[in-house]
Every structure is written in C-alpha cells, then in structure tokens.
Amino acid sequence: MQPAAQHDTCVPNGLAQVRFLQSYGWEVNEQPCEMVQVVIPETFGDVYENYNEIQKQQGFDLSRFRGKQVSRCSYEVLNYPGQKEYIRANLLIYNHEVIGGDICSIYAENGFMHGFSLLEQEL
User: What is the pTM of this model?
Assistant: First the structure.
C-alpha cells in the first residue's frame, strides 16, 4: 500500500491526472474515456461503506465529502498485469484534488476493484 500522502493529489488538469496515475506505475490513455459528475451520498449504504474502506486503506476518506458533487474521471489502463483490456482507473476529484478512486475491471465475469496500488491486489 502506498499512502496518498506520498503522491501529489493536486490535479488541476488532465495531464496532472495522468501523472498522478503514473506515480502508481499505471500507463493510461492520456484522454479520459469518461468524465461525469457524481454526488457522494449523505448516508453510506453497504456499497459505499465498502468502497470507502478501499479509500481509507490508501489514505483517503470519502466521509468528509458526504453530499458533495465531485468529478469522476476514468482512464483506460494499458499495463495491468495479465489483462490488456477492460481495466479502468477512476479518479474522484473535488476542487482539483484527488479525494479517492480505484482500479477496476469492467469485464462482468471477472470483475474486481482495488486501490491505486497494485500491491493491494493479490494476484
């Protein structure tokens, strides 16, 4: 696990977002494949509690952002070990600051999600 404090979380533009992901060793397409606005729920159900546990393990905590609208920028990961496609890096951004995110498979049959560091995922 690499705490977020060891990475520059200030991301005023797309290039900085790519650099943030590169700081964890990820190669990504420089253009996001999706950019959407999402609202962090006021009350966390099981799904958000579990997701926030992933965030806490990597030095983030979404509970400070309950009720806030944030940007989710998704990038295609090009160098995930053993899987060449269907991998996304998702950044949650509030006021040009990374506040959380994940690496996940969007392939339905073998889906997974973990924090930014590959070391968090048991291969």
Answer: 0.90
